[in-house]
Design brief:
Blueprint (H helix, E strand, L loop, with lengths): L2 H34 L2 H31 L1 H6 L1 H28 L5 H26 L3 H24 L5 H16 L1 H6 L6 H7 L1 H28 L2 H13 L1 H20 L4 H27 L3 H8 L3 H4 L3 H12 L2 H9 L3 H53 L15 E3 L5 E3 L15
Antiparallel strand pairs: 1-2
Organism: Nocardioides kongjuensis
GO cellular component, one term: plasma membrane
InterPro entries: Poly_Biosynth_Transport (IPR050833)
């Protein structure tokens, strides 16, 4: 193994550890709620997690992914990236807090949890962007540090609320988000203070960022819409079971996300070498497939005694869903490296269109499945839809001819490169191969 390959494997290992730690905070809270609260609160907490996930996807798509595929920005303009995060985070916090206040005025039990989430949202997004900045800088140990801090503080927060008798769902959400707020302060130690160039950075990268955001929102928005539509056909308990089952698959999907993120970061730095790009894609698919198989074995054959120990009474409504969830995770493995190859080589237009098409198909399948068979029907339909989306990604790569083996237009020292994302940036005075059918702008 070459030194470069060994370094890439070490980075991938750390990114994987980080993604697992990131999912553990949500799973730990899920397990705590399952044991300490009624099933209805279990469903409410799942909805709070879903709102947080939508916000997280927006910031990952708009800011974090852009930093990943423009590593020069992560290396030299981290303060501008954090500045953009703060500005957008304040806006997101205001919107979420206003929604929480409106729910409180309507005497909804969701009001307090949503308000607490809204007040914390800016710092939680800073924490997440800080993780991806560390990965973009090829220093994933920094991301591991941030998630380890959150998880450790979360344990302290949960134990503290129990000792003080603060047993409402709002206080649990406060412990969960508060630990993330404190952990987010370490981002400033790792990356420095936010600067006022955030809007300038967003404007420069907007042609890439908005496509990335549409791509990400098509996934999270579909998940939110599907969860809402499921309530028309299913009971709140069935919706909670659906969310719990998908969260139980989170460690495996976290690994798949890790290999995809690591591959995109590496491809962004080596996008002119087709063999290197394809090497990262193959590695991502292989690792994701192995993890998907292990996930299926663990979840499908998990003994009831272990399931009850983890989820308490909620296990009885979740256990029938494990096979469908496991098959969905396994089918996702075949697309792990493909999206990374398109994004890492700045083919964001192709990635955006494929994301929108495939996620709409998955969402439609899930709604039909929920109408047909509650949570179990929705998850089986999701597995079918995921298989269709995997085919979509392969078709996009083959049809465009740009997947694992991209070529960039030739430029000279006096030229500027303008990619599909519309970015203009200077490049070295060395030619690269011109892809068939491409012409100089």
């Amino acid at each position: 193994m070459t030194a470069q390959g060994g370094s890439a494997n070490r980075r991938l290992s750390l990114v994987t550890v980080d993604q697992i730690l990131s999912s553990l905070s949500n799973i730990a809270a899920l397990i705590w709620v399952a044991h300490a609260f009624e099933p209805i609160d279990f469903g409410r907490f799942s909805l709070v997690i879903l709102v947080y996930t939508v916000a997280q996807v927006v910031f990952r798509s708009l800011i974090s992914t852009t930093a990943i595929v423009h590593p020069e920005d992560a290396d030299t303009r981290a303060g501008d990236i954090l500045g953009a995060t703060v500005v957008l985070g304040i806006g997101a916090s205001i919107l979420c807090s206003a929604a929480g206040l409106a729910l409180i005025a309507a005497d909804s039990a969701m009001g307090g949890p949503i308000l607490v989430l809204g007040l914390s949202l800016t710092f939680l997004m800073l924490h997440d962007v800080g993780r991806y900045l560390a990965i973009a800088k090829q220093r994933p140990a920094g991301a591991v540090t941030l998630d380890s801090l959150w998880f450790g503080l979360l344990v302290v927060g949960f134990v503290g609320t129990e000792q003080l008798g603060l047993d409402s769902l709002t206080w649990l959400i406060a412990a969960w988000t508060g630990s993330g707020v404190v952990a987010s302060l370490w981002v400033f130690v790792q990356c420095g203070a936010p600067t006022g160039g955030g809007f300038a950075w967003l404007r420069e990268r907007w042609d890439f960022s908005w496509r990335s955001m549409v791509s990400g929102l098509s996934a999270s928005g579909t998940a939110l819409a599907t969860a809402s539509l499921m309530t028309l056909f299913s009971s709140p308990i069935a919706v909670a079971a659906f969310r719990a089952a998908t969260l139980l698959g989170a460690p495996s999907t976290a690994v798949q996300m890790a290999v995809g993120t690591s591959a995109a970061a590496d491809i962004a730095r080596e996008r002119e070498d087709p063999r290197a790009v394809w090497r990262h894609v193959r590695r991502a698919i292989l690792i994701a497939t192995v993890v998907g198989v292990l996930n299926l074995v663990v979840l499908v054959f998990l003994p009831d005694v272990v399931g009850h120990a983890v989820l308490g009474e909620a296990w009885d409504i979740v256990e029938p869903l494990m096979l469908a969830v496991s098959l969905k995770v396994l089918l996702m493995a075949a697309q792990s490296g493909l999206r990374a190859s398109l994004i890492g080589t700045h083919r964001i237009q192709a990635a955006m269109v494929t994301d929108v098409v495939s996620i709409v198909l998955v969402g439609a399948c899930m709604v039909v499945g929920a109408a047909w068979g509650d949570a179990e029907g929705a998850l089986w339909a999701m597995a079918v839809g995921t298989g269709v989306s995997t085919v979509c990604w392969w078709v996009a790569v083959i049809w465009k001819g740009r997947g694992p083996l991209p070529d960039l237009p030739a430029r000279t020292a006096t030229d500027e490169r303008e990619g599909e994302d519309g970015d203009r940036e200077p490049v070295p005075a060395r030619p690269v191969r011109v892809a068939p059918g491409k012409h100089r702008a």
